[in-house]
Design brief:
By secondary structure, the protein is an alpha+beta fold. It has one domain: Nuclear Transport Factor 2, Chain: A (Roll). Helix content is 24%, strand content 30%. It has a four-stranded antiparallel β-sheet with strand order 2-3-6-7. A three-stranded antiparallel β-sheet has the order 1-4-5. A hairpin with a 5-residue loop joins strand 4 and strand 5. Helix 1 runs antiparallel to helix 4 and helix 2 runs parallel beside helix 4.
Length: 201
């Protein structure tokens, strides 16, 4: 598997914590092949299609609805955590991610490690996330947690090498994630998550 599948890999790596009987996404037989930039162009290398989205340079804003301990708060938290996921991979800044995740969360650890590795080798350009819809699909009152299903699209992007050149091309991809969130004394935290790709362009 190439580095270009990194966003899918970190989402698929963890199973959801709540017993919800919902299966999220399917793993394709093999990743879509990527075409390296042409080396014979007289000027700059051609831009992959679709073009990479703008870099995610600013951390997402925590929504006011996250102050609520109800379903609306859970949905707002899940959307924020997925936006934060994209921000961490884009920038390597894990400060807020560490503040809203728990130590036993496999997805959270995978995201942190992926971001550190990615930015130690050159970083990333593009790859912002758009969220289309979200809904609560299960509740566990024993741990004050809810599972939220979120439909998303990651924009096209590029993983860079140490010289700032394109090392891997990231195609636009859409999928569904399930994020388990819990309202605690410090507010909403991410307990676990998983997801799968449904479309690539």
């Amino acid at each position: 598997m190439t580095q270009g599948a990194g966003r899918r890999r970190v989402l698929r790596a963890a199973g959801t914590m709540l017993a919800l009987t919902l299966v999220v996404g399917c793993t394709p037989d093999e990743p879509e092949p990527t075409t390296p930039p042409a080396t014979t162009a007289p000027t700059a290398a051609p831009t992959p299609s679709p073009e990479p989205s703008e870099p995610v340079a600013v951390a997402p804003t925590r929504p006011a609805a996250m102050d609520r301990a109800d379903e609306a708060g859970a949905v707002a938290a899940a959307k924020y955590f997925l936006e934060l996921f994209a921000y961490v991979l884009s920038t390597g800044d894990t400060t807020e991610w560490d503040a809203v995740t728990i130590e036993s969360c496999s997805l959270c650890t995978n995201v942190r490690e992926r971001a550190v590795t990615l930015h130690a080798s050159g970083g990333m350009r593009g790859g912002g996330v758009s969220i289309h819809s979200s809904r609560v699909i299960g509740t566990d009152t024993t741990i004050n947690a809810r599972a939220v299903e979120v439909d998303y699209t990651f924009g096209a992007g590029e993983e860079l090498d140490a010289a700032g050149e394109t090392a891997e091309t990231l195609a636009e991809e859409s999928g569904t994630a399930v994020l388990d969130v819990s309202f605690t004394e410090q507010g909403w935290v991410l307990l676990e998550g998983s997801g799968g790709q449904t479309e690539t362009s």
